[in-house]
Amino acid sequence: MKLNNNLKITAGIFCLFFVVVFIALSVRHYTVVPANEIQAGDWNHKQIAKIQQSQSDKFRFAVLSDSHVNPENGGNSATLRKILQKVDENNYSFAIDVGDLEVGSANNSPPFFYNLIKNEKTPFLVDVGNHDLTRDEGKYYLNTFGNFYYSFSNGNSLFIVANDANGAVGAEQMLWLGQQLKKNYSHKFVFMHIPFYDPRQGTHHDLDALSNNSPEVQKLSSLMEKYKPNVVFFGHIHAYYNWVKNGVRYIITGGAGGSAVGIDPKHDFHNYIEVQVDGDNVTTKVIKIP
C-alpha cells in the first residue's frame, strides 16, 4: 500500500512538471523579461512593459509604416532615421510601425531594421506587413518581435495590433478582434497593415482585392462600425490618407521610407502620424518628412 502511494505521488509530480513546461512554452512570447535581456521573440512585449511603467490618460504617440529598408537602399533608411530622431526629440510615449519593415532581405541576412531601432529611447512597437512575410514566411519576425497580433493598454486607451499581411485575417483572429473591441475603454485604436479598401479612385491596392474575400472585408468593416474605435491605422499604400466612412476614421500612413506612389502633394509624401490623447479628446496630425 505504501509503495502504491509513493508511485501515485511520483506520477503526480511528473504530470505537474509536464503541465508547467507546457504552459511555459505556450506563453513564451508574453513573459515580461528584464529590459536589458534581449531574447528571441520578446521585443514587442518588452516595449509594452516599458509603456506600462507609467500609465496615463494624457500622452502622445506616433504611427508610421512602410520603411522598406535594406542595406542597399540608403534613401529609405535615411527617412526612417529622421522619423526615429523626431520620435525621440518629441518625447512621445511610444511609437508603432504598421509593417513592411524591410524589403528584399535574404533569409540569412543581418537584422537591418532591428539594428536601426534597437537603441531607440522611446518604446517602439511593430506590426507585420506583407514584405515581412516574404523573407522567410515570417519566421524572422516571430523570432525577433513576437506574435503577429497582440493588444495592450495605456491608461484608459486600448491598442489593438492586428495582422492582415497575408491578405486575410481568418476566423480565429476575427473572433479575437471582436473580443478586443468589446472591451470597456474610453479610447480604442486599431492597427493593420493592408487597408480594407483603397481610398483612391480606380485603384485597388487593398485587402478586398488581395484576398478576393469580400465577405471577410465586409465583416471587418462591420466590426469597426459596430464598436467605433477612435482611429483605424493602415500602411501598405505609400501615401497619406485620412477619411471617415460610416462613422469610423481611417488613416493610411505609408510614408516611413518607401517610395511615394504618386506626385499628388496632398497625399504622396513621406510622413508619420502624431496622435494626442488628452482625457476624453483624441487628435491626429500628419508630420511631413522632407
What does this structure look like?
The protein is α/β, with parallel strands linked by helices and 290 residues long. The protein folds into 2 domains: 1-30; 37-288, Purple Acid Phosphatase, chain A, domain 2 (4-Layer Sandwich), CATH 3.60.21. The chain is 33% helix and 21% strand. It contains 9 helices and 11 strands. It has helices at residues 2-26, 43-51, 74-89, 112-117, 130-134, 139-144, 171-181, 207-211, 214-227, and strands spanning 58-64, 94-97, 124-126, 150-154, 157-161, 187-191, 231-234, 240-245, 248-253, 271-278, 281-288. The chain has a 6-stranded mixed sheet, with helices on one face. Strands 3-2-1-10-11 form a 5-stranded mixed sheet. The protein is globular, with a radius of gyration of 21 Å. Mean pLDDT is 86; it is low at 7-11 and 13-40.
Walk me through the topology.
Layout (H helix, E strand, L loop, with lengths): L1 H25 L16 H9 L6 E7 L9 H16 L4 E4 L14 H6 L6 E3 L3 H5 L4 H6 L5 E5 L2 E5 L9 H11 L5 E5 L15 H5 L2 H14 L3 E4 L5 E6 L2 E6 L17 E8 L2 E8 L2
Parallel strand pairs: 1-2, 2-3, 5-6, 6-7, 7-9
Antiparallel strand pairs: 1-10, 4-5, 8-9, 10-11
Helix pairs in contact: 7-9
